[in-house]
Design brief:
The complex is a heterodimer of chains A (262) and B (53). Chain A has helices at residues 2-10, 38-57, 67-88, 96-111, 127-148, 151-157, 166-213, 218-258. With 262 residues, chain A is mainly α. Chain B is 87% helix and 0% strand. Chain B is built from 2 helices and no strands. Chain B starts with a helix and ends with a helix. The chains are: A mainly alpha (262), B mainly alpha (53).
Chain lengths: 262, 53
């Protein structure tokens, strides 16, 4: 019976990209319909959880904070002081709300990747990081234009260098500031979450594949499952780090847009 | 991060332009090579300018 069950599971080994496309929920079990899946549900759960958490913690603010208020204030304080103000300077405070929202949204969505029984992150689909990257991209350009006018593009693209060497440098600047940035923001987050999910799948399903192939391999299967748990902890680190990195890089791009001519 | 992105961007942009030149002139890679080296030089220069003292 147990072996029979694991045969079904092991049939999915090795895992493929198909494992990221979960079955449709509405309409239930529909083929090739990806309008409303577990991923969709998770994103809305994340949004609702963040809104509810921050509203609840700030409903009756106390001078001596309650535990929940302390947690919310710590998160906001961390992003405001250690990311916004550190990267952008005193005027970074006005970007703190956006950066905090971004940080929390990525963190919670990433965390679904290791939450038991959920264990897939919406961020392992390129669409979500891509949209976030586009928002950050449009924002840092907008901020630059607001601050410097159209001269922002000159400021961003033409470095302070002798005229003769500029033709060499300007294409590099255009490429790295306006083409690579949104792409690398999106791909960095997506690839980390995708690889993390894949890794967990390989170790879990690999355990089943081995125990199915030969019962003598059972100890190795158990080792593989133990490693799954270890990797889950490693994933937790990656999750926090990637949320932090995305936010810090957004802040750093905004800082670049606001910087004065040098 | 910025430094790395300048280096890679330099190689990719000028290597890519060199590759296009190769394509049109009919050579087999000499311009891509020259372009990549130029790109590294430009990247290093930019890093020093933007991030250095």
């Amino acid at each position: 019976m147990v072996i029979g069950q694991s045969t079904v599971l092991a049939a999915a080994f090795p895992p493929s990209v198909e494992d990221f496309y979960l079955p449709s929920i509405l309409p239930w079990g529909a083929e090739n319909s990806y309008w409303f899946t577990k991923i969709t549900v998770l994103v809305w759960v994340a949004v609702a959880a963040i809104i509810v958490f921050f509203l609840m913690s700030y409903r009756k603010p106390q001078l001596v904070p309650t535990k929940k208020q302390w947690l919310a204030e710590s998160i906001y304080g961390f992003v405001r002081n250690n990311i916004a103000v550190d990267m952008i300077g005193p005027q970074g405070v006005r970007f703190a709300p956006y950066l905090t929202t971004l940080f929390m949204f990525i963190l919670v969505n990433n965390f679904f990747g290791i939450l038991p029984l959920v264990q897939i992150s919406p961020m392992s689909h390129i669409a979500f990081p891509a949209v976030l990257a586009v928002i950050s991209y449009v924002m840092f350009i907008w901020v630059g234009i607001r601050k410097h006018g159209i001269a922002y593009f000159k400021h961003a693209v033409v470095p302070n260098a002798p005229l003769g060497i500029l033709p060499l440098l300007v294409p590099i600047e255009i490429f790295s500031n306006f083409l690579v940035r949104p792409f690398s923001l999106a791909v960095r987050l997506f690839a980390n979450m995708f690889a993390g999910h894949m890794l967990l799948l390989v170790f879990t399903l690999g355990g089943f594949a081995m125990i199915n192939a030969n019962v003598l391999l059972a100890p190795v299967s158990v080792l593989s499952w133990v490693l799954t748990i270890a990797i889950t902890f490693l994933e937790f680190m990656v999750i926090c780090l990637q949320a932090y990195v995305f936010t810090v890089l957004t802040a750093s791009y905004v800082q670049g847009s606001l910087a004065d001519e040098h | 991060m910025t430094a790395l992105s300048y280096l890679i961007a330099g190689i990719l942009v000028w290597g890519g332009i060199g590759w296009l030149v190769d394509h049109f002139v009919g050579t087999t890679g000499i311009f891509a090579g020259i372009g990549a080296v130029l790109g590294v030089a430009g990247g290093v220069y930019l890093i020093v300018r933007r991030l250095g003292a």
